[in-house]
Write a structure and sequence with these properties.
Layout (H helix, E strand, L loop, with lengths): L2 E7 L9 E5 L4 E5 L5 H8 L6 E6 L5 H4 L2 H36 L3 H20 L5 E5 L3 H6 L12 E5 L11 E2 L3 E8 L18 H6 L7 H18 L8 E5 L9 E4 L6 E3 L15 E5 L19 E8 L8 H6 L6 H7 L4 E2 L5 E2 L1 H4 L8 E7 L5 H5 L2 H4 L1 H4 L2 E8 L7 H8 L5 E5 L11 H13 L23 E3 L5 E5 L3 E3 L9 H6 L3 H14 L2 H8 L9 E6 L13 E6 L3 E7 L3 H8 L2 H9 L1 E5 L11 H12 L21 H6 L4 E4 L1 H11 L10 E6 L2 E2 L5 E3 L2 E4 L2 E3 L6 H11 L3 E6 L7 E6 L5 E4 L7 H6 L5 E5 L7 H6 L5 H11 L3 E5 L19 E7 L27 H11 L11 E7 L3 H4 L4 E4 L4 E4 L3 H4 L3 H11 L12 H4 L9 H45 L1
Helix pairs in contact: 3-4, 17-31, 17-33, 20-21
InterPro entries: Metallo-B-lactamas, RibonucZ/Hydroxyglut_hydro, RNZ2-like, tRNase_Z_dom
Keywords: Endonuclease, Hydrolase, Metal-binding, Nuclease, tRNA processing, Zinc
GO cellular component, one term: mitochondrion
């Protein structure tokens, strides 16, 4: 069985760590760091994860090494479940085909052959394992994953966490399966107060603790492990279903919740419409039915922990193999060539024709020791002594067969004399070094880089060349026998050990990638630039009269759900001149996207200039880049500070809630819902990433009456205080405006998931920018965003998929534009496109028809969880969705007298508004966002001029490979065909292209309609068959 180790990633701007993939025919294993961007790299380089069952995390448990773990688990879980189901379906279909063939077969030989195949299929079906994953690592891995309990839910995929927290005194493998044996080496810094040679704790799971009498644990530790293990089960192997109802007393229902009662006569379920809990009204003494809360969300808080210094490394070896089969000897012993040979090689004893028993040992050579490698991560030189004293690293038996070591090194390690001495003592090993000090900052996302380069050719004013460097930094002379790691490097362990140092694929050839764009596309770009010089456009450009028109919008990530080769997940940066920078959502990889746009010095200035981060909701694609970005901000701002590691400010949990405390706060504001802020706080116990320096503001959106009049502006909770921009206390208003740089910030609930919000921010100059996050079209959003300078709105689906948009609570292109028109926004930027439009979103079918604005209204206390997916957390004293008279009374002192009926809960409400999109678009300029696009507000008007060039670019490349090996297009080979195109001819060419595109869209619509008719017919046939 062949197996190899591939270097998947090394430290670059987008990939902060090193990952290795060990592959067998039947399984894959991941070693190293699961950093931000890893799943995107796997997609880019074609590494399939369907058979990945084990992840071996190296290094310390911190975001640099595990920042991509949460997103990676979500993606891997979905892929593994899909592969398992597909395999079962394939085998079942094969069995059905065999059964049909057997029923018509008349030959006894054929029947026996089919029965053998059927038996083999049954054997294969029995070997199909249910999806599961084992994650090995150091302290706090389980704690890290448990912090995500409110936004990760996967059923039917058990997750087993093995924490290796103490060194092992024996040389037995800490884990093994039929392919490999693994020795975990938990390393500690020198002179640390933990006992490096403590008793064995090879698996820090609760089951292993409970079975290990040699390592007793205290009752609090037992309780902690039980809670964390239970949380893991709730997140990944729960039998929870959203449609499951449980019976309980009405008074015991935790709001918000959808409440049902059973009609005593018809026995049918009906929605309960009476007084609800937590409204202050008398409740009837009845039993009701409610949806079972999502179990993970019921865990209010996790047990306390603290950062761990443990850095885990591994020695990995193949299982020993039987010696070579001696064919000639087997024949001499009377074994007949054929199936008997196969049985002997599989380890079975066979009986010869003369009755002699032949064992595998008689016909095979000596057992072959398994080949192997080591993955060793040393954050600092203080870990070297722990490595050299490790029992596994000292054992000749364990190290026998180890051919190479992958060294994952912290800053300055290669120049350390102790490390150089260690390398010198191991001259027979192949040493591969991966370190940010030496590895090239190559473009690790080739497809996205090619897109950025080509965008630069078309529109150099809006797209910069990516920041990268393909050169490696030479190692010291003392390490001349070492090799610098790079992606694609491979170590083949069987059938013989070979090392391939070449980079496959090689670094992206940026010049060749730019050359491959056709002259026809370039000519359309020339036309666009010429249009910008026309008097009519110049006049329109000068007559815009936009406030703060030099404000820059940088769309860092414009995809939805999960990253793709071409689009990263959500993030948009605003740069307001002389005020600061503001980040709208922060999906995984956001910091890497920034690092590809801005050189290091400029990036540091942007981080220092960052005033506020807005997180729209708790879905992973909108916030998993937040921790690394805050850490980078903290490093940039406090790089030279004496007290960088220990804040002089009180942590949020210690705040007294006084105005004096608020005045002392100077830091980055993170505005989000309470569960998002709690996630940050919980993770801060695992790693000190700068949480004590930020200002977490829990946002409470605007309250409306039934006529959509604002009766309570947006509030913010900080410590024990309720803040706002429009309170009766001018001191609070002034402090908040100084802290954020804003004159106002208003937010509304939108229809998407629990706690989803849209926001509108206003600056003192009058500049107003509104951001939708993910949502259905919202009338109330148009109210708070009225007369926005710029609307940034999600346009996940094309209009032809309006049904998908409604079902998944997103917006279509037309709906997003309609929101902008109703809002009277002067400019609109469309973003957050479905990954089905991985290169360029379609703008077809944007037609004039009524738009349904769907909002959460304050009418029925029983309908809120029908909007929530997953179900909400239990309510707290001041729940964001559930107001009562006492709550409102407490707010009076902050915002003044309020005269309104307390809204109890929210439900969807639709309001149809009709706009002539095509006519209105003449007034409102609309831009389509791409990753890495930088556009000033005053330049949005120019984006439409480049639409034909971008459309032509992706029409030509949609069926071609974007990899560095892709061949030039025919137009690029024959530039003379298009070199002499005049302006008039080019315009005709553009019109022909648009007509061709329209015909293609009509054909697609006809095909989709035919598919719908086919499905409808099949449904009718199936229904008729059921009635027969």
């Amino acid at each position: 069985m062949k197996n190899s180790v591939f270097v998947v990633s090394t430290p670059t701007a987008e990939t902060t760590g090193t990952s290795l993939l060990l592959t067998f025919d039947d399984k894959k294993y991941l070693f190293g760091n699961v950093h931000e961007g890893l799943q995107r790299v796997c997609i880019q380089n074609g590494h399939k994860l369907g058979r990945l069952g084990n992840i071996f995390l190296t290094g310390k448990t911190e975001w640099r090494t595990t920042g991509g773990l949460l997103g990676f688990i979500i993606t891997a879980a979905d892929i593994m479940q899909s592969v398992t189901e597909s395999t079962k379906t394939f085998i079942a279909q094969a069995q059905a085909r065999l059964k049909r063939r057997r029923s018509v077969s008349t030959s006894q030989a054929d029947i026996e052959k089919l029965e053998r195949k059927s038996t083999e299929l049954k054997r294969k079906l029995g070997k199909v394992e249910a999806p599961s994953m084992v994650i090995h690592g150091g302290d706090n891995i389980m704690q890290l994953i448990a912090t995500a309990r409110r936004f990760i839910l996967r059923r039917g995929m058990p997750l087993d966490i093995r924490e290796h927290a103490h060194s092992v005194s024996t040389v037995s493998p800490t884990w093994e399966d039929h392919n490999i044996r693994v020795w975990a080496m938990p390393l500690m810094p020198q002179n640390h107060d933990m006992d490096v040679n403590g008793k064995s704790s090879r698996k820090r799971s609760f089951d292993d603790y409970s079975k290990n009498d040699d390592f007793p644990i205290s009752k609090p530790d037992t309780d902690r492990l039980q809670l964390l293990q239970g949380t893991m089960t709730d997140m990944f192997d729960s039998d929870w279903r959203i449609d499951t109802l449980i019976e309980t007393q009405l008074s015991e229902v935790r709001m918000p919740a959808v409440i049902f009662v059973r009609n005593p006569e018809t026995k049918a379920l009906e929605k309960y419409t009476g007084p609800a809990p937590n409204t202050g009204k008398d409740l009837p003494d009845i039993k009701v039915l409610v949806r079972q809360p999502w179990p993970g969300a019921l865990v209010k808080e996790l047990p306390a922990t603290k950062p761990s210094p443990v850095s885990v490394s591994y020695i990995v070896k193949n299982q020993p193999r039987r010696g070579k089969f001696d064919r000639e000897l087997a024949i001499k012993l009377g074994v007949k060539a054929g199936p008997a040979f196969s049985e002997l090689t599989r380890g079975a004893t066979i009986k010869t024709a003369d009755g002699q028993m032949v064992t595998p040992e008689q016909v095979t050579g000596p057992t072959i020791e398994g080949e192997g490698f080591a993955v060793i991560e040393l954050p600092t030189a203080e870990y070297i002594s722990s490595l050299t004293n490790s029992a596994a690293f000292q054992s000749e038996t364990v190290l026998k067969g180890v051919e190479a070591i992958f060294w994952l090194l912290g800053p300055g390690m290669t120049s350390n004399p102790a490390f150089q001495k260690l390398i010198k003592e191991k001259p027979n090993w192949k040493h591969i070094i991966s370190s940010a000090d030496h590895c090239a900052n190559y473009l690790s996302m080739d497809s996205a880089a090619v897109a950025q380069l080509r965008h630069r050719i078309l529109d150099e004013a809006r797209f910069d060349l990516p920041v990268f460097d393909n050169a490696t930094i030479k190692l010291p002379q003392e390490l001349s026998n070492c090799t610098i790691a790079h992606r694609g490097m491979s170590l083949h362990l069987t059938p013989e050990v070979t090392f391939s140092p070449e980079m496959e694929p090689g670094p992206l050839n940026t010049i060749e990638s730019m050359k491959r764009m056709s002259q026809a596309v370039k000519q359309l770009s020339v036309i666009a630039h010429q249009d910008l010089k026309q008097p009519a456009f110049i006049k329109a450009y000068q007559d815009q009269h936009l406030l703060e028109d030099d404000t820059e919008v940088i769309t860092l990530g414009t995809g939805s759900a999960s990253p793709s080769k071409y689009r990263n997940v959500s993030a948009t940066l605003l740069r307001i001149p002389n005020v600061g920078s503001y980040l709208l959502d922060c999906g995984e990889g956001t910091l890497g996207q920034l690092a590809r746009i801005y050189p290091a010095d400029e990036l540091q200035e942007i981080l220092k200039d960052l005033r506020l981060i807005w997180i729209s909701h708790l879905h992973a694609d909108h916030h998993l880049g937040l921790t690394s970005l805050i850490k980078a901000w903290h490093t940039a701002v406090y790089r030279d500070s004496q007290d960088r590691k220990s804040s002089e400010h009180k942590s949020p949990g210690q705040l007294t809630g006084s105005i004096e405390d608020l005045e002392k706060r100077q830091g980055l504001c993170v505005v989000a819902e309470s569960t998002m802020l709690q996630w940050l706080k919980e993770y801060s116990e695992i790693e000190n990433f700068g949480y004590d320096r930020i200002v977490p503001l829990c946002v409470k959106p605007v309250i409306f009456d039934e006529s959509n009049n604002i009766i309570m502006p947006t509030r913010f909770e900080w410590g024990d205080m309720t803040l706002g921009f429009q309170t009766v206390d001018p001191r609070i208003n002034t402090i908040l405006r100084k802290l954020t740089g804003l004159a106002n910030l208003q937010s509304v609930y939108v229809l998407h998931c629990s706690g989803a919000r849209a926001v509108s921010m206003t600056w003192s100059s009058g500049l107003k920018i509104s951001y939708s996050g993910d949502c259905r079209p919202s009338k109330r959003f148009t109210i708070i965003g009225r007369d926005s300078t710029v609307l940034i709105h999600e346009a996940t689906f094309d209009d032809i998929l309006a049904g998908d948009a409604e079902a998944k609570r997103h917006s279509t292109t037309r709906e997003a534009i309609a929101v902008g028109l109703e809002m009277r926004a002067k400019r609109i930027i469309l973003t957050h496109f479905s990954q089905r439009y991985s290169k360029i979103p379609t703008l077809k079918n944007v037609i004039a028809r009524p738009t349904n604005f769907e909002d959460l209204t304050n009418t029925n206390a029983n309908d809120i969880t029908s909007l929530r997916e997953p179900p909400p957390k239990p309510t707290t004293t001041l729940d964001e969705d559930n107001f009562d008279d006492r709550t409102l009374g407490s707010l009076d002192s902050v915002f003044g007298d309020t005269k309104f009926q307390a809204p109890s809960i929210m439900q969807p409400r639709s309001l149809s508004v009709s706009h002539d999109i095509s006519a209105a678009a003449q007034e409102v300029k609309i831009g389509v966002a791409f990753d890495h696009m930088r556009v000033k507000i005053k330049d949005i008007i120019a984006l439409e001029k480049f639409k034909p060039a971008f459309a032509k670019l992706y029409a030509e490349t949609e069926d071609h490979d974007d990899s560095p090996e892709a061949k030039p297009t025919e137009d690029a080979k024959k530039p003379e065909i298009v070199a002499e195109i005049t302006r008039d001819n080019a315009e005709k060419h553009r019109q022909r292209f648009l007509r061709r595109d329209a015909r293609r869209e009509e054909k697609e619509e006809e095909e989709e309609e035919e598919e719908e008719r086919r499905k409808s017919t099949e449904g009718e046939i199936e229904q008729a068959a059921m009635q027969m």
